[in-house]
Amino acid sequence: MENRGIVIIGAGPAGLAAAIRLDELGVRDILILERENSGGGILRQCIHDGFGLERYGESISGPEYASRLLEEIGKRGIECRTGSSVIDIGRDRVLTVASARGTEIIKAGAIIAAAGCRERSRGAIMIPGERPAGVYTAGTAQAYMNLYNRMPGRKAVILGSGDIGLIMARRLTLEGAEVSAVFELQDHPNGLERNIVQCLDDYSIPLYLNHTVTEIHGKERIEGVTVSEVDSITHKPKAGTEKYYPCDTLILSVGLIPDNTILERAGVIIDPVTGGASVDEHYMTSVPGIFSAGNMLHVHDLADYASAEAEAAAENAALYIEGKLDTGGNIRVAAANGVSHVVPMRVSGNGPFTVSLRACRRERNRKVEIRQGEKVLGWHFFPLVIPSQMITVHSDAASGSEDIEVSII
Ligand SMILES: Cc1cc2nc3c(=O)[nH]c(=O)nc-3n(C[C@H](O)[C@H](O)[C@H](O)COP(=O)(O)OP(=O)(O)OC[C@H]3O[C@@H](n4cnc5c(N)ncnc54)[C@H](O)[C@@H]3O)c2cc1C
C-alpha cells in the first residue's frame, strides 16, 4: 500500500486548482488521480470561449483554461496520475485505483473529491417511443464533435435549455446542421442569459418554453419527434397541442447530476437535493478527512467558481492533515423561501462562512437573507435572481444550535 498526503480525485478545473493551492500552502505530498488519459476535465471539449473571466480576467476557451492549469501543475512538479480511476474508497481513506498497471491501493491523509458530474439521460426523463440511434446527451454530442471530429447528425431538435444544449445548438448550426428548435419544459430557460442571446437569438433558433418531447419516432435511426405544450404548473402535456418535427438527431440537455457513487460507498452522507455530499463550511463531508468540491459537490455554472470552491476545500484539507481544522458544532443550514438548495448544509459556528445557493424561480429586485432565529447573519441585494445562476453570499458566524435559514425575499 502506498501512503500519500493529500489525494485529489479528478483533474478538472476543481481538482487542478485544489492541487495548485495546496502547493502554494507548502503541502508537498499531493497526488491527483484522473480517470481519463489527460487532465482538464469537461473543459477539454468546451472549445467555445467564456471561461476564466473571474480567475484570469479574460474570456478564454475551455482547453486554454485547462492548459493554463495543467502548465502550472507541471511547473510545480505536482504528480498527476492519468488513466487512473478511483473505484472505491474504504475505511480510513484507503482508495482502490484501477489503471493499466492493475489495481493500486493508496492510503491518503486527506481526500479532495472533485470528480465532476454526469448528464441526465433519456432513461432519467422517460420519453416514450422507439429506441432508435440518434438520441444523444448534449455532452456526448459535444465530445463527438469537439474531441473526435464527428457530426452527430444533420437535422436536430434540442430538448432542454441547459447551457450545454444551447452551446450545441450554435455548434451544430456552425457546422452546417439545421437546428429546428429548442424545447424547454419549464416556463424559464435553464441556461445562462448570455448563452440564450449568443447561441439561439444570434442564429434565429426558436426557444419554446412550456414544451416537451412526448414521443420519439423511428426504428433504426430517429426520424422525428412529437412535441407538446405542457401545463406551466403540472408540466403535464396538453391534449391537442402535439406537433411533429422531423429530425435525425435529438439532443438532450436536461440537467447534470453530481456522481457520488464512490463517496456513498465510503459512508459519506449525500444531500438528497444537490445529489452531492452533505458538507460543512470547510467543504468536509460527514466522513472526517474527506472533502468535496466542484461539480461533484453541486453543479456550478462557471468553471471559475468550481476552481475557487476547490481552493477553499484545499485550504481546509491542508489544516486537517496538520490537525488544525476546527470543526466544532453542527448547526443545520436550510434552504427556505425561494431557494432550491444551499451549500454548506451545516456549519460549525466557529467563524464566518460563505453560502452558495440557487433560486427556485426568476425574480427581480430580491434580497438573499441568511438568518438564525431573530438574527440576520448576512444578506445581499440582487437586481435579478435566476435558477441557472449560482449565487454566493457571505455570512457572519452563527452561534448556539438553532437552524440557519437562507431565503430569497
Ligand atoms: C458544455 C459545457 C459548457 C460549459 N461552458 C462554460 C463556460 O462557458 N464558462 C464556464 O466558466 N463554465 C462552463 N461550463 C462549466 C464548467 O465546465 C464546469 O463547471 C467545470 O468543468 C466543473 O469542474 P469540475 O472539476 O468540478 O468537473 P469536471 O470538469 O467534470 O472534471 C472532473 C474530472 O474528474 C474525473 N473523474 C471522474 N470520476 C473519476 C474517478 N472515479 N477517478 C478519477 N477521476 C475521475 C473526470 O474524468 C474529469 O476529468 C460548461 C460546462 C459544460 C459541460
Account of the protein in words:
The protein has 409 residues and is α/β, with parallel strands linked by helices. The chain has three domains: 1-119 and 255-327, 3-Layer(bba) Sandwich (FAD/NAD(P)-binding domain); 121-254, FAD/NAD(P)-binding domain (3-Layer(bba) Sandwich); 329-409, Immunoglobulin-like, CATH 2.60.40. 21% of the residues lie in helices and 33% in strands. It contains eight helices and 25 strands. The strands form six sheets. Strands 1, 2, 3, 4, 5, 6 and 17 form a seven-stranded mixed sheet that branches. The longest helix has 19 residues, at 303-321.
What's the helix count?
8
CATH class of the largest domain: Alpha Beta
CATH fold-type name of the largest domain:
FAD/NAD(P)-binding domain
Largest sheet: 7 strands, mixed
Helical residue percent band: 10-25%
Rounded mean pLDDT is 94
| Outline | globular
The N- to C-terminal Cα distance equals: 53 Å
Bound molecules: flavin-adenine dinucleotide
Strand content: 25-35%
CATH level 4 superfamily of the largest domain: FAD/NAD(P)-binding domain
This entry's quaternary arrangement is: single chain
Q: How many β-strands, per DSSP?
A: 25
Structural class computed from helices and strand pairing: alpha/beta
Q: What is the correct CATH architecture of the largest domain? A: 3-Layer(bba) Sandwich
Tally of individual domains: 3
What is the radius of gyration? 22 Å
- Contiguous runs where pLDDT drops below 50 for at least 5 residues: none
